[in-house]
């Protein structure tokens, strides 16, 4: 018998962990790239105006 | 322009690394054998431990940025420190959250003031504190000095977190990877875990570099906007 009785129903815990991982890591990466593109776009607009 | 264009390869490589990370998670879910004692719930390790190493790595980069800023008194090094603090906070919070979720089925509690957990919580607080401090002090030598000193203090917490399981009696399991006498893990499990740590480390460095470059471009944008306004 497992010394961790609550660990037998692992799926909700696993899904919660990996969902958090996807949301935080991938969410941050998407924000990072979108923000970068936005800043580049503003800089290009200023360069063009100058 | 060429410089700006070339920096996009960082974002492209981040996409590749994130795809590799997803592949590693697939291996962790579908390929590695189940743990005899904990069952499937132990698979949280393939996210929890790499995230913890990523938070340590961010502290290392923060230390480098802080020391360089202190030595040169040049504020542009704070961009590196700020990027490392933001990424470090993300991974420390992820480590705490996944550890908490793992703790419930194995320890029976979501949280306990165990030495490893408390020192990790302190790391998250200090990363958050660094970001707040940076925003609270106006640009100048005072901000460079204060943020860099806090950066060094944050890095000093990492060896304490790492050794906390041997220095104090804790609920957290002792070191399993880097221990005298070799790892106690099964070779397949260890292989996937080490590859996860390596991929997460590359993701971390990449994120820090992309963020640092964006911060530099933001400053350039601000200078140009102000120049245009005057």
Commentary on this structure:
Chain A is mainly alpha-helical and 50 residues long. Chain A has one domain. Helix content of chain A is 78%, strand content 0%. The mean pLDDT of chain A is 85. Chain B has one domain (42-216). Chain B has 7 helices and no strands. Chain B has 230 residues and is mostly helical. Chain B is 78% helix and 0% strand. The interface between A and B is large, with 33 and 45 residues.
Describe this structure in a few short sentences:
Chain A has one helix spanning 11-49. By secondary structure, chain A is mainly α. Chain B contains seven helices and no strands.
Overall morphology of chain B: globular
- Euclidean distance between termini CA atoms of chain B: 24 Å
Question: What is the number of strand segments of chain A?
Answer: 0
Question: What is the ordering of alpha helices and beta strands of chain B?
Answer: HHHHHHH
Q: Describe the biggest sheet of chain B? A: none
- Mean pLDDT level of chain B: 88
The oligomeric status of these chains comes to heterodimer
Dominant shape of chain A: rod-shaped
Summarize this structure as a short list of keywords or feature phrases.
heterodimer; A: 50 residues; mainly alpha; 1 helix; B: 230 residues; 7 helices; 78% helix; globular
Topology:
The complex is a heterodimer of chains A (50) and B (230).
Chain A: H1 11-49
Chain B: H1 2-6, H2 8-30, H3 45-72, H4 77-107, H5 115-136, H6 141-167, H7 187-229
Helix pairs in contact in B: 2-7, 3-4, 3-6, 3-7, 4-5, 4-7, 5-6
């Amino acid at each position: 018998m497992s010394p961790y009785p609550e660990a037998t129903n692992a799926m909700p815990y696993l899904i919660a962990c990996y969902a958090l991982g996807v949301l935080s890591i991938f969410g941050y990466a998407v924000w990072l790239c979108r923000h970068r593109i936005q800043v580049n776009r503003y800089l290009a607009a200023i360069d063009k105006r100058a | 322009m060429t410089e700006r264009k070339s920096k996009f390869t960082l974002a492209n490589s981040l996409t590749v690394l994130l795809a590799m990370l997803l592949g590693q998670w697939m291996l962790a879910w579908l390929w590695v054998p189940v743990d005899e004692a904990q069952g499937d719930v132990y698979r949280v390790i393939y996210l929890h431990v790499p995230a913890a190493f990523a938070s340590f790595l961010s502290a290392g980069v923060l230390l480098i940025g802080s020391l360089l800023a202190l030595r040169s008194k040049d504020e542009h090094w704070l961009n590196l420190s700020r990027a490392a603090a933001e990424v470090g906070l993300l991974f420390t919070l992820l480590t705490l959250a996944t550890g908490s979720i793992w703790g419930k089925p194995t320890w029976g509690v979501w949280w306990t003031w165990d030495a490893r957990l408390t020192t990790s919580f302190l790391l998250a607080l200090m990363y958050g504190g660094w970001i707040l401090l940076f925003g609270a002090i106006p640009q100048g030598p005072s901000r460079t000095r204060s943020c860099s000193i806090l950066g060094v203090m944050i890095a000093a917490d990492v060896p304490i977190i790492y050794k906390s399981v041997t220095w104090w009696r804790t609920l957290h399991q002792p070191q399993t990877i880097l221990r005298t006498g070799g790892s106690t893990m099964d070779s397949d499990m260890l292989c996937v875990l080490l590859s996860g740590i390596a991929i997460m480390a590359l993701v971390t460095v990449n994120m820090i570099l992309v963020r640092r470059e964006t911060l530099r471009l933001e400053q350039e944008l601000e200078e140009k906007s102000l120049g245009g306004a005057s």
